[in-house]
């Protein structure tokens, strides 16, 4: 069965470019995007995901709140937290809440693809 990846960011250009990057790499993933924490929760209720890549700072439900809520119900889902405003406090909090990785923007798309392949395989 194909692995399912959810990309969450309020910046639609970023979710689109990550989506394009994963489509081009032709891996056996189903890629779904969401542009808010609320939309991400809805998607997670509808389908089973293996990995969520989410921004921390979004209007409404933040990436850390999303991580906290999802890990309570679906502890098996892996998380990569990304942010343009990294602090060691936020990194520590993300890792304590169960994120596998914390990555700062801007990052190389290739680096993110390699990270995703490691987490999903």
What is the terminal separation in angstroms? 12 Å
Mean of pLDDT: 93
What class would the helix/strand composition place it in? alpha/beta
CATH architecture: 3-Layer(aba) Sandwich
Alpha carbon gyration radius: 13 Å
Number of helices: 5
- The total beta strand count reads 5
What fraction, in percent, of the residue positions are helical? Answer: 40-55%
> What is the CATH fold-level name?
Rossmann fold
Can you walk me through this structure?
The structure is a single chain. With 121 residues, the protein is an alpha/beta fold. It has one domain: Rossmann fold. Helices cover 45% and strands 22% of the residues. It is built from 5 helices and 5 strands. It has a 5-stranded parallel beta sheet with strand order 2-1-3-4-5, sandwiched between helices. Strand 1, helix 1 and strand 2 form a beta-alpha-beta unit. The chain is globular. 28% of the residues are buried.
Provide a quick synopsis of the model.
By secondary structure, this protein is of the alpha/beta class.
Defining traits:
Rossmann fold; 121 residues; five-stranded parallel sheet; globular; alpha/beta; single chain
Question: What topology emerges from the helices and strands here?
Answer:
Blueprint: E1 3-8, H1 12-24, E2 29-34, H2 37-46, E3 51-55, H3 63-73, E4 78-83, H4 88-96, E5 101-104, H5 109-120
Parallel strand pairs: 1-2, 1-3, 3-4, 4-5
Helix pairs in contact: 2-3
């Amino acid at each position: 069965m194909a692995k399912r990846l959810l990309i969450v960011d309020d910046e639609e250009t970023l979710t689109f470019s990550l989506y394009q990057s994963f489509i081009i790499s032709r891996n056996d993933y189903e890629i779904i995007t969401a542009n808010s924490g609320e939309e991400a929760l809805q998607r997670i209720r509808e389908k089973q995901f293996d990995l969520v890549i989410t921004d921390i700072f979004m209007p409404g439900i933040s990436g850390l709140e999303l991580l906290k809520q999802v890990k309570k119900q679906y502890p098996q889902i892996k998380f990569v937290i990304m942010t343009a405003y990294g602090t060691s406090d936020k990194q520590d909090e993300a890792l304590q809440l169960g994120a596998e990785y914390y990555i700062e923007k801007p990052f190389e798309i290739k680096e993110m693809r390699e990270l995703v392949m490691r987490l999903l395989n």
